[in-house]
Amino acid sequence: MLDMNQEPVKKNSSYIQKRITNLEREIEKLKKSKSDEDYFRKRSAETLIQRQQQILSSKNQEFNTVSLWGLYGPDDMKMFKSMTLPVFSSPTGAPFDSLLDGALLLSSQTINDPNKIYSRIDNTTIDHLAMKLAALEGKTIDEETQALCLSSGMSAIFLATMPFLEVGDHILSSNQIYGGSEQLFNITYPKMGWTVDWVHEPWSVEAWQEQIIQKTKLLYVETPSNPNLFIANIPTLAKLAHDYNLPLIVDSSVASPALLRPLEHGADIVIHSISKVMGSSGRAIGGAIIAKKNITTSVPDLREDFVNKVKRSHFRNLGPCLHPPSAAAIWDDLVTLQLKIKAMSDNALQIADFLDKHDKIEKVNYPGLSSHPQHDLAKKLMRFEDDSVGFSHLLSFYILGGYDAAVRFVEVINFGVEVADLGRNYTTICHPASTTHGQMTSEMREKMGVSDNLIRYSVGLEGVNDAIRALSKALSIL
Ligand SMILES: Cc1ncc(COP(=O)(O)O)c(C=O)c1O
């Protein structure tokens, strides 16, 4: 870590400060003990203090500094003899110091530093990615945040929701979500005895409230949503959820913490597909769950320490671990996160504006346009650290001429790539009704506004004039 000692603590950090004080007290007590068990407990508490101090420092650094360094600083570089974050691909790290050391680690009574258990559970490279993500997502809040990295965004969605659910339980979800998430809730979850209801007017808090039932265990939103850029009112929904003792879970993959930090607005758990803009080079698939301590839930077991609880139980049992080289690739991609999101958002706004004025376009979905129904809300919630607004890299638009015109557009556009992907450094274009949202029923698609003439356009880092010229040319051919 860079030397941050000269920096006074300027953000609210009373929660973490208190935790450090408690850990220091615990260490003082443990020091007096002669038992082997207390020796390992003391070592674990010391590791925890060191992490807490690093988290505290990161709260006082600027976003770009945290996204660059994470918690991998000069001391780690010296220890690992590597300026870049090393890829630890071995299934296990250091051997246990003793049988007792192993027993305490495996029963989660002590924590792991460096990696000693097994890479499915803990891995030094992946831990560094998790710590960076937790620091970025929790930058603006008082509490400590923790992250769990997983093999994909889908496994993050599964493991962020499944721990709350028993047979017969119920999820209430915005209908404005990625097609894969819809399929998970609609096709896979009923097999476990879990049901989902869709809020078809997710902008209306009354619509949410009317659909909460006794068996509801969580509220679920995606914001901005893929592909229609619906913006959820996180503060209002968090309040509603908390009034019913429920957690609000937010898929924030499109915005990334550079633009939106749902925990700051009251959400309990954030999900990311880190395969997208957070891993914009497109070298890896991954997911993350980030939560603060003491979430709101009617499931007592999960309240205090959601991430660690899930990590030590269902995650460990199911095995959806991230591949260490993927973790390193995404860790590297995060280095320039805010710079990329700013450039992509600037480009996207200009492209949205161009399309909005074009006579072959019926409508553009982009929260940066004043015509977007949640434009004011987006301006309030989607802000870079310097308080400037940004609306993400993603937009979608309806082409006049229905399905045929949309398909023709995808065929003739001579810029970017046609793939079922988004958040890349380069522009990607897709026709959701036949790809990402193609497995839904047409009724569900219509209700969520994924019509046959909708095009999803993920803005890249190319020159914006090149992009606009290509769009203009393609539209002129239709
Ligand atoms: C908003 C959103 N959430 C989750 C996912 C799933 O992520 P992954 O592909 O990493 O499993 C996607 C994939 O496109 C997505 O767009």
User: What does the overall shape look like?
Assistant: globular
Poorly predicted spans: 1-10
Main pleated sheet: 7 strands, mixed
Question: How many H/I helical runs?
Answer: 18
> Distance between termini?
55 Å
The tally of strands reads 12
CATH class bucket of the largest domain? Alpha Beta
Number of domains: 3
Order of helices and strands: HHHHHHEHEHEHEHEEEHHHHEHEHEEHEH
Relative helix content: 40-55%
Query: Rounded to an integer, what's the Rg over CA atoms?
Result: 23 Å
Strand order across the biggest sheet? 1-7-6-5-4-2-3
Characterization of this structure:
This protein has 478 residues and is of the alpha/beta class. The chain has 3 domains: 14-106, no CATH class; 124-334, Type I PLP-dependent aspartate aminotransferase-like (Major domain) (Aspartate Aminotransferase, domain 2, 3-Layer(aba) Sandwich); 337-477, Aspartate Aminotransferase, domain 1, CATH 3.90.1150. 42% of the residues lie in helices and 12% in strands. It contains 18 helices and 12 strands. The strands form 2 sheets. A 7-stranded mixed sheet has the order 1-7-6-5-4-2-3, with helices on both faces. A 5-stranded mixed sheet has the order 8-9-12-11-10. Strand 4 (216-222), helix 10 (234-243) and strand 5 form a beta-alpha-beta unit. Helix 6 runs parallel beside helix 13 and helix 14 (337-356) runs parallel beside helix 18 (464-477). The longest helix has 24 residues, at 36-59. The protein starts with 13 loop residues before the first helix and ends with a helix. Mean pLDDT is 94; it is low at 1-10. Bound molecules: pyridoxal-5'-phosphate (PLP).
